[in-house]
Amino acid sequence: MASTRAGGDGDRVPADAPLLSDLMPWSVAPLRLGRSWVLAPDAASLTARWDRLVRAEGAEREALFGPTRARTPQSAVPALPGQAGGAGQVAGTGRFVRESGRCPEPLRVIHGPFDEQWLIPDHRLIDAARPELWRVAGAHQVFAVEQGYVPGAGGPALLVSALLPDGTSPAGRPGRIRPLYRRPGGLEPNVTPGLTALLGARHGREVAPEEVLAWAVAAAVPSPRGPVVPLAADPGVWSAGVELGRLMTGIQLRGAHGGVRHRLPGGRRPYVRATVPDRPESLAYDPGEEVLSLGTGRVAPVPAGAWDFMIGGVRILELWFERRAGLPEGTEPGTLAAIRPPGWRREWTSELLDLITVLALLAELEPRREQLLTDRLLTAPTLTRDDLHTAGVLPPPAAARRPASVLDHHEEGPEGQFALI
User: Fold this and answer.
1) CB within 10 Å: which end of the chain, N or C, has fewer?
2) How far apart are CA 365 and CA 111, in angstroms?
3) Could you give the CA distance from residue 268 to residue 364 in angstroms, rounded to a whole number?
4) Which residues contact 326 (CB under 8 A, 6 or more apart)?
């Protein structure tokens, strides 16, 4: 059995435990948008921003666009894989300085932890869109998103999403995005070759790649090097961790891929007790009454675990509210980012109720996750990085750390040129 370290969050694991990068070797850096106005909590604002931009000409269009070293209205770039433009047309690849068409249909994405927002899927507007992520997105994909490391902050080290994530972190340095599958259609799992065979031999049964992700969701611990994932060598501990991880994953996927939307037990669910006003100016929580107040609006019951849920030391509900309650700090009047809804949108209230449920359910599972980390993994045998090296699993082949070649159709390049297959 491996020895253990004592200390902070990153030390509550067996010594020489593998990193997530050892288990899921292919990763992609977070998206770098370059301009805030391409992302919004509502799709209508994005369409209005686009329309305002394409009506402008010359220097005004350039100023509204917000040029960077990576993108200007004169940039020529390929289309994003799998994305259509306005009226069902392929997203534009001509220089934006000549653009006069309709806005591409906004795409639902995950902005940081748990925040479902909308993005204009146009490669000409995004500094670093990470096309390799867009190629493998689809009905079977699950994205594992590392959370930024903040010493002593606690909270999950790894979240998952069925939607394309931007990978941003509310605090700390953003982590990497690791798709579960390297090809569209749920093909070629992003798991180090030989790992599932080794785990299967130790546990006396076949271990599916999906179990590796489920285990990592439950057992990953944050560290400055990225999430550390101690691997249980005991079949009972492994099965318990996988079961917990699957439950945590299902909650976060919110019914995607044919799953179910999880509900709070005992018939408890948050309701709107008083309508949220058009412009709620404050967010407050009463733990005694379990009431969340948005100005004069009231939502209850809201379990304390949902209110207290934090990532990187940042309270998730407060961050979600701040992104919708008013203009982001530093937004200048007259810019595209200043085009916002005139008031609180009804769908935001429904999204808030769903988010409260997700956070409350994950908070209820936290004692089980702590028990897995502090009681079971610290007393049961584990597989170390040395064990994986001895078994020939580590280091992963260099090809496993690179994107798979997934081109099975033409992708439009800059100015309408097509890439050779």
Assistant:
1) C
2) 23
3) 13
4) 279, 281
Q: List Cβ neighbours of 320 (8 Å cut-off, separation of 6 or more).
A: 114, 115, 352, 355
DSSP for 192-225 reads -TTHHHHHHHHHTS---HHHHHHHHHHH-B--TT
Q: Is 98 exposed, middle or buried (0-12, 13-18, 19+ CB in 10 A)?
A: exposed
Structural domain harbouring 124:
9-263+376-416
Residues 57 and 221 sit within 8 Å (Cβ to Cβ)? no
pLDDT on residue 1: 38
Q: Is 20 among the domain residues?
A: yes
Q: What's residue 90's pLDDT?
A: 45
Q: What is the pLDDT of residues 27-71, one digit of tens each?
A: 999 999 999 999 999 999 999 999 999 999 999 999 999 999 999
Residue 137: both structure tokens together: 């997105």
**Cis peptide bond N-terminal to 270, omega within 30:** no
Is residue 63 assigned to a domain? yes
In terms of Cα–Cα distance, which of 99, 70, 181, 92 is closest to 135? 181
> Is residue 417 pLDDT above 70, yes or no?
no
Integer CA distances (angstroms), 226 to 145, 153, 172, 257, in order? 11, 15, 12, 28
- How many folded domains does the chain comprise? 1
Q: Rounded CA gap, 103 and 115, in Å?
A: 23
Contacts of 123 (CB under 8 A, 6+ apart): 77, 78, 79, 80, 91, 93, 129, 131
Which pTM was predicted?
Answer: 0.92
| pLDDT score recorded for residue 65 | 98
Average pLDDT over the chain reads 91
What is the per-residue pLDDT for 369? 96
Q: Is residue 148 included in any domain, yes or no?
A: yes
Q: Using an 8 Å Cβ cutoff, are 175 and 227 in contact?
A: yes
CB 400 within 8 A of CB 78: no
The pair of structure tokens assigned to 306 is 């949902």
Domain assignment present for 317: no
- In the chain, the percentage of residues whose pLDDT exceeds 70 is 91
Distance CA 137, CA 110 (A): 13
Q: Which two tokens stand for residue 77?
A: 């770039």
Residues 6+ apart with CB under 8 A from 387: none
